[in-house]
Amino acid sequence: xxxxxxxxxxxxxxxxxKAVAANPDMTLTLLLTRRDPASLxxxxxxxxxxxxxxxxxxxxxxxxxxxxxxSATDLPVQGPxxxxxxxxxxxxxxxxxxxxxxxxxxGAAKKGGKLSLISVGWDPGLFSTLRVLSGAALPNGADYTxxxxxxxxxxxxxxxxxxxxxxxxxxxxxxxxxMEAVRSGxxxxxxxxxxxxxxxxxxxxxxxxxxxxxxxxxxxxAYFADYDTEVHFITxxxxxxxxxxxxxxxxxxxxxxxxxxxxxxxxxxxxESNPEFTGxxxxxxxxxxxxxxxxGRTGAMTxxxxxxxxxxxxxxEQVIASLV
Length: 324
Description:
324 residues, Rossmann fold, 2 domains, 4-stranded mixed sheet
């Protein structure tokens, strides 16, 4: 049994907990939290709940620690700190600075003799691998990725960190005309603004400056500044009633040619629960980390560096016999 620990018990953490329960080769043994450990009541019977500050004392209790903090402010600090103590997996999703985060995690993991797998989920993660495979099959072409309509965990976390925001959620919405332009077989050039828009629903703290909140969101680098962004202020009751579910989805296209013939590769997914699906991919990543760590692998890697067979619960011979 692979002993799994979870650092952070928010939406992603609870999704990981469900995924671990669904995998017969895994067991949840540890939950690390920044909250009062006594205030948490995980669904898994018997799991030990400890303060994040006690992580160093818990490093022998788990085989792989899955980091479930947000990409905006949590993982840049927590990631390297935990990578020096544990084999880790995380879902860092700020695409533009993944190389810098990878370098930081690589140094920390090698220092501790550990292995870290970063940016695991459906994008980055599964979609990253699909882009690599599509580009390998059609080297003469162009890649296109569209997200949504759905809730982005990382972007929602980012708006909740804005001063004056009590709660909030963000939807990524693809622009239909852009997708149809790709499906038509062309290779159009888009700016980020031409492919997606972002819609935020925010519960402001009492007496907060709503205009200051709106400005902070729409000008936020790497998250909202490059998109047409709507900010709607609503009540907490409206948030609970109308935005409790966290659906998402997306499309990966590769439009290319071989000689005179044109080809279009399209992958898509539709998710009823973004955090639960992300948690399931994180659990698969933890299995791969556990297997690679047994051979002495250290440092940090991304999802595209992982042989797919190591992610699957079946062993290599079974995968070849049933899936190849």
